[in-house]
Amino acid sequence: MRENLDEAQLGKPEPWYFCLRHQRVEQGHQCPARFLLGPFATQEEASHALEKVQENNEAWDAQERGEDGGAS
User: Fold this and answer.
1) Residues 34, 40, 46, 48: is their CA dihedral positive or negative?
2) What are phi and psi of 40, to 5 degrees?
3) Which residues contact 42 (CB under 8 A, 6 or more apart)?
């Protein structure tokens, strides 16, 4: 029966989050927002949340040191 329903009838799927408390990917708000990174469109994206945070931190640190090649 569900396979005959479209997205408008089912509603949008819950987004994915990475839970810092449990160190796992979760769909929807299973934990308080203060423990969540996201939202992410897919489970795969959420599984790389900590890597993305690390990449962003490194880029911001480089920018603060003036190592961003002059881009602002």
Assistant:
1) negative
2) -125, 150
3) 16
Q: Which amino acid is at 62?
A: A
3-class secondary structure, 19: strand
- The amino acid at 69: G
- Work out the burial of residue 66: count CB atoms within 10 Å of its CB; fewer than 13 is exposed, 13-18 middle, 19 or more buried: exposed
The tens digit of pLDDT for each residue in 1-46 reads: 456 655 565 778 899 999 999 999 999 999 999 999 999 999 999 9
Q: Which of 72, 50, 49, 51 is nearest to 62 (CA)?
A: 72
- What pTM, to 2 d.p., does this model score? 0.71
* CB atoms inside a 10 Å sphere around CB 13: 10
What is the per-residue pLDDT across 48-62, written as a single tens digit (0 to 9) for each? 999 999 999 999 999
